[in-house]
């Protein structure tokens, strides 16, 4: 596929983790900032080097202000599979695009970045000297240059078989770095209030990016827990709120999740987590509420719903109800009655979630959630479906040899009508996912672990 000539070519240097999440994140962020994903590469696979077409440098910079999957972006001046090809490519790059960064009043430096190989200082100097044909007129400044240029060499993905010569060589002008430091600065290890299932900081930011969360959005988490997903959304300027069925978690009561700490302190709560990062002004509220019985008036309130429902592994899947279990649309509890906690099948939980998202998201709003699956039985048909929601992406994170969870991103494309509430019952997707109601039993089953190992070894 040829790239449109009106677009500039950029090189993204990607982080080598959460590989399946990288492409949906970049596509979502480009869409958020008015760009469109355009590339000549058919597939990205595991490569850390992606060549993209982006309409402007401003969009490239905005992309890097959000991404945690990309390390850096460069304006691509040349690319080849050998030094000769690279030099030829550079000589064909329009001089008028180079001149603003190479004039006599400017300062610059050239860096060498290699993937899967380490070069000696002598080898690096030799590569820099070979670029003397470029019209550099400014002065070299290694400490605080106005412009940074990079030679990037790709030696493949196999550390046990490093080639003598690189597979690809790139040269470009550094534009900006991504937000990889957020993974450390928001680390759960340093967080004031945590629980057994607090979401990894990197994945929290990825989920917010998949959800296209932006300033002044209202973001909701119906299984809020200790609020890790609210923190990521608030960092990007969204106002956040949530609910959870667990009274103790919402109010920061009970046993602590940290080692060597028996009980939670008086100020351990979700609001304190946002205060820790200077984000308290984005905190709306959290409520003790049952996700199977949403207490919201009809209407579209939320720009994004980002959540991690319980799978019955570390946290139980529960809903309120009566042991007699009269249909929930009929039974109403008196104010003095505290409902008992009943089991909540995974299939029911996810279809309630999709219905809730279809009703309360604005048109174009996104639902981002985790779907646990038993890998030997998983097919794409098992992903819950709703007529108001379009599937945007489906990424896998392995939990064990036989289980994983899928990060599902959906976008509201149709206004909700009453008849849409039960349309999933007619869908071919409904019955397949019901098999995952026993996900907890399969997760803990030693028999299935042994079978999975035997199957894996027989395939190798």
UniProtKB/TrEMBL annotation:
The keyword Nuclease does not apply. CDD domains: AdoMet_MTases. Coiled coil: none annotated. Residues 190-320 form the Ribosomal RNA large subunit methyltransferase K/L-like methyltransferase domain. One of its GO terms (cellular component) is tRNA (m2G10) methyltransferase complex. It catalyses: guanosine(10) in tRNA + S-adenosyl-L-methionine = N(2)-methylguanosine(10) in tRNA + S-adenosyl-L-homocysteine + H(+). Keywords: Cytoplasm, Methyltransferase, RNA-binding, S-adenosyl-L-methionine, Transferase, tRNA processing, tRNA-binding. Residues 9-180 form the tRNA (guanine(10)-N(2))-methyltransferase TRMT11 N-terminal domain. It is an enzyme of class 2 (transferase). It is found in: Cytoplasm. GO terms for molecular function: methyltransferase activity; tRNA (guanine(10)-N2)-methyltransferase activity; tRNA binding. GO terms for biological process: methylation; tRNA processing. The keyword Glycoprotein does not apply. Its EC number is 2.1.1.214. PANTHER family: RNA METHYLASE-RELATED (PTHR13370), TRNA (GUANINE(10)-N2)-METHYLTRANSFERASE HOMOLOG (PTHR13370:SF3). Catalytic subunit of the TRMT11-TRM112 methyltransferase complex, that specifically mediates the S-adenosyl-L-methionine-dependent N(2)-methylation of guanosine nucleotide at position 10 (m2G10) in tRNAs. This is one of the major tRNA (guanine-N(2))-methyltransferases. Part of the heterodimeric TRMT11-TRM112 methyltransferase complex; this complex forms an active tRNA methyltransferase, where TRMT112 acts as an activator of the catalytic subunit TRMT11. Belongs to the class I-like SAM-binding methyltransferase superfamily. TRM11 methyltransferase family. This is tRNA (guanine(10)-N(2))-methyltransferase TRMT11. It comes from Sus scrofa (Pig). The lineage of its organism: Eukaryota, Metazoa, Chordata, Craniata, Vertebrata. The gene is TRMT11.
């Amino acid at each position: 596929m040829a790239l449109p000539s009106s677009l500039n070519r950029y090189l993204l240097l990607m982080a080598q983790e959460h590989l399946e999440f990288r492409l949906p994140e970049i596509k979502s962020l480009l869409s958020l900032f008015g760009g469109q994903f355009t590339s000549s590469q058919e597939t990205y696979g595991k490569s850390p080097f992606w060549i993209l077409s982006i309409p402007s440098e401003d969009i490239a910079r905005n992309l890097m202000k959000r991404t945690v999957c990309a390390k850096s972006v460069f304006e691509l001046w040349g690319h080849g599979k050998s030094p000769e090809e690279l030099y030829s490519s550079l000589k064909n790059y329009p001089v008028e695009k180079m001149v603003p960064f190479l004039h006599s009043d400017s300062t610059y430096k050239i860096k060498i970045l290699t993937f899967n190989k380490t070069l000696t200082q002598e080898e690096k100097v030799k590569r820099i000297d070979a670029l003397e044909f470029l019209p550099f007129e400014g002065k070299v400044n290694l400490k605080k240059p106005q412009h940074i240029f990079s030679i990037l060499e790709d030696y493949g993905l196999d550390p046990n078989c490093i080639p003598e010569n690189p597979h690809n060589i790139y040269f470009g002008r550094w534009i900006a770095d991504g937000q990889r430091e957020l993974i450390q600065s928001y680390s759960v290890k340093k967080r004031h209030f945590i629980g057994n299932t607090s979401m990894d900081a990197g994945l929290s930011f990825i989920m917010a990016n998949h959800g296209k969360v932006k300033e002044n959005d209202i973001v909701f988490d119906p299984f809020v827990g200790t609020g890790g997903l609210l923190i990521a959304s608030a960092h990007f300027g969204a106002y956040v709120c949530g609910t959870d069925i667990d009274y103790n978690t919402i109010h920061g009561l009970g046993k602590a999740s940290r080692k060597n700490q028996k009980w939670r302190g008086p100020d351990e709560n979700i609001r304190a987590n946002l205060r820790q990062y200077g984000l308290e002004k984005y905190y709306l509220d959290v409520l003790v509420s049952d996700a199977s019985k949403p207490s919201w008036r009809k209407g579209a309130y939320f720009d994004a719903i980002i959540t991690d429902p319980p799978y019955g592994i570390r946290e139980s899947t529960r809903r309120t109800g009566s042991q007699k279990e009269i249909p929930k649309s009929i039974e109403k509890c008196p104010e003095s009655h505290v409902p008992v906690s009943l089991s909540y099948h995974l299939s029911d939980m996810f279809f309630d979630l999709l219905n809730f998202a279809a009703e309360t998201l604005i048109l174009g709003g996104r639902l981002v959630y985790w779907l646990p699956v038993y890998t030997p039985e998983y097919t794409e048909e098992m992903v819950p479906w709703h007529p108001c929601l379009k599937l945007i992406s489906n990424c896998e994170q392995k939990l064990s040899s036989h289980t994983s969870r899928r990060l599902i991103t959906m976008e509201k494309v149709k206004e909700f009508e009453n008849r849409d509430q039960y349309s999933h019952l007619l869908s071919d997707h409904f019955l397949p996912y019901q098999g995952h109601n026993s996900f907890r039993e399969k997760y803990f089953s030693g028999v299935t672990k042994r079978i999975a190992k035997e199957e894996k070894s027989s395939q190798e």
